Amino acid sequence: MQHKRTAITDSHPIDNILSSLENVIETQKYQYRAKCPVHQKANSSSRTLSIKEETDGHVLLHCFGGCDYVEVLGAIGLKKCDLYPNDGFIANWAYERELGKRTPRDIINDCKPSATLVQVYVGHILKPENWKVLSETLGLDDKDLWVLQGASECLRELLDA
Question: What are the tens digits of pLDDT across the range 74-112?
């Protein structure tokens, strides 16, 4: 009979998962093996569940006995979303395991001033009178105009993120 445990959910996903498993060992940096809570008996000492923490903080699970990761999560009282850090956690997160590593949110925020400047220039370039001069000078065609407009839209999405 399986007993369900509930992990603490306000810390790193890896901490929640590892604290809910039995017979855990670290096999490599950020990689672990543990007893599978779904198929292994209470007295089993083998470790068929592989756990890996990715650099962005999400956790990968693989049972070499064939159990689905959703079953594993259910057996320890967790859900799929518990494999990932929450958005609020990521937004303010300088991930401790790799000091100096920037989060995706940090990268986006650092790019915003440059993206804003480019967005302004592209808006100016796309005015018909300016595009005519630029396209004649540089030998650009309508395809180049569409590419520039697409890049401008992508930058706008970045700025809105």
Answer: 999 999 888 988 765 555 554 455 555 666 777 777 888
Please report whether residue 108 resides in a domain.
Answer: yes
Whole domain around residue 58: which residue ranges? 13-98
Label residue 23 left, alpha or beta by phi (over 0 means left) and psi (-120 to 50 means alpha): left
3-state secondary structure of 102: coil
Give Cα separations from 49 to 12, 42, 128, 147 (angstroms): 19, 14, 61, 47
User: Both 151 and 132 in a single domain?
Assistant: yes
Each residue of 43-76: pLDDT tens digit? 888 899 999 988 778 899 999 999 999 999 999 9
Residue 148 lies in a domain: yes
Contact between residue 63 and residue 43 where contact means Cβ atoms under 8 Å apart: no
